[in-house]
Write a structure and sequence with these properties.
The chain has helices at 2-12, 16-56, 78-86, 120-127, 150-156, 191-194, 202-208, 228-239, 248-251, 253-291, 293-301, 306-341, 348-356, 370-386, 388-395, 399-403; strands spanning 59-63, 76-77, 91-106, 109-118, 133-136, 146-149, 163-169, 175-186, 197-201, 214-215, 217-222, 243-247, 344-345, 362-363. It is of the alpha+beta class and 405 residues long. It has a six-stranded mixed β-barrel with strand order 3-4-9-6-8-7, surrounded by four helices. Strands 2-10 form a two-stranded antiparallel sheet. Strands 13-14 form a two-stranded antiparallel sheet. The protein is elongated and about 100 Å long. It folds into two domains: 2-52 and 255-403, no CATH class; 65-240, no CATH class. The chain is built from 16 helices and 14 strands.
Length: 405
């Protein structure tokens, strides 16, 4: 094997110009593909981080059936799950929530809203709500007021210090009504949340809906996305069948579909790029076979077996591809590393749009290993397919014709 590799490597550099041109095309193709993949995966990671840290968390625990029928009657008793959650390792933070729908009124204006009862300190540790306040103040632990989304506040013509009336139906159909001072106005990254959300202290929310110690969900944070599956499995086994444990992928299914769609469009572009590279390698192999036809005839005539010759030629093709791939990956690592640490800032109207949606106005990059080894796997597949050509050609080689070519 070692001798075959040495022979194949020497054969490649018998025509240095051709080898360098082909290697250069692979080199630049790999760099472009790697940077594009890094940019895509970095953007996806940024979107996921924003969604996880703005509302959903990494994991949510609900009473069984709540996700498909989001009514307060499908809530859970917090005291029954609190101890079980504390027994699970890997959880970095939890935030209890009680969510229900209500009518919010201000003078003659009424609108349907989503009321979310939160523990202010625990919720702020996960979603950073206090940093999103644009008017007034954030809730304190014993505050009996509410915080409104900015679009909702504008529709109801409310400012910090005004009063809003909430009308709804509580636990098991009990009537729910209350009058609350507006402590602050918040700018939510999600337009849907911004025009419907009303935050209040969870104890006041439980009193409003006559649901003491009841929650609709517990939001759970873990160290990172890699730690999430193990924690989820521990929660499922620890809580039993009376509860449903959902990760951020299940909660944000639409976002995942959008990411998959965008990733597929990127694969088409990279596919075209790699087809160009593949045809470049194939062209080189065809020229090599045509130029060395007489040489092949002579080698076979003096006793070399065709399958050994084919083996050497396949190794030449693979080495040609991997020389460009290794050089391309080696050159792309410092580029992606730099832009991972220093994301490209976005300015102008595009930046304003991203800020309104709750995203940082930067073009992020990623250095996940799959970005690099996918390049090697793709080139390996292409070179193995192209390597069939010299095998087929050598097997059909007629020694007399080759010697007279």
């Amino acid at each position: 094997m070692k001798d075959y590799l040495k022979l194949a490597w020497r054969n490649l550099w018998r025509n240095k110009r051709r080898t360098l041109i082909t290697t250069a095309s692979i080199f630049f193709g790999v760099i472009l593909s790697t940077i594009m993949s890094s940019m895509q995966e970095g953007s996806y990671a940024q979107y996921i981080k924003t969604i996880v840290n703005s509302y959903s968390g990494y994991i949510q625990v609900h009473s069984k059936g709540y996700w498909n029928d989001k009514v307060i009657n499908n809530s859970l008793e917090y005291s029954l799950v609190r101890q079980k959650l504390s027994d699970v390792k890997g959880i970095t933070a939890t935030a209890p929530r009680l969510e229900n729908y209500a009518l919010a009124s201000s003078e003659e204006i009424t609108k349907g809203v989503m009321v979310i009862g939160i523990a202010p300190i625990e919720e702020d540790a996960i979603t950073n709500l206090s940093k999103k306040i644009i008017k007034g103040n954030y809730l304190s632990r014993d505050d009996n007021g509410v915080v409104l989304g900015s679009t909702l506040a504008r529709y109801l013509k409310l400012e910090a210090g005004d009063t809003v009336v909430l009308l709804s139906q509580g636990y098991h159909g009990v009537g729910a009504a209350g009058k609350y001072p507006v402590r602050g106005i918040i700018k939510q990254p999600s337009p849907e949340l911004d025009r419907t959300v009303v935050y209040m202290n969870i104890s006041d929310c439980q009193d409003l809906f006559s649901a003491p110690d009841r929650l609709t969900s517990v939001v759970i944070m873990v160290k990172n996305n890699d730690a999430m599956p193990a924690v989820k499995n521990d929660l499922i086994s620890g809580l039993g069948t009376d509860y449903e444990v959902m990760d951020w992928k299940e909660i944000n299914n639409i976002l995942l579909k959008q990411i998959d769609s965008d990733r597929a469009s990127g694969m088409i572009i990279k596919g075209v790029l790699y087809m160009i590279i593949a045809f470049g390698i194939f062209g080189t192999v065809m020229m090599m076979m045509a130029e060395r036809r007489k040489e092949f005839g002579m080698i076979v005539a003096i006793g070399m077996q065709k399958y050994k010759l084919s083996y050497v030629l396949v190794l030449e093709t693979i080495l040609l591809g991997f020389t460009g791939v290794i050089a391309g990956i080696a050159a792309s690592i410092p580029i992606t590393w730099y832009f991972t640490l220093h994301p490209i800032p976005i300015t102008g109207q595009a930046a304003d749009t991203m800020l309104q949606m709750g995203f940082d106005p930067v073009m992020s990059f990623s250095m996940i290993p799959s970005i690099y080894y996918h390049q090697a796997i793709t080139i390996l597949i292409f070179t193995l397919i192209i390597g069939l050509y010299p095998v087929f050609n050598i097997n059909r080689l007629i020694i007399i014709k080759a010697l007279h070519s």
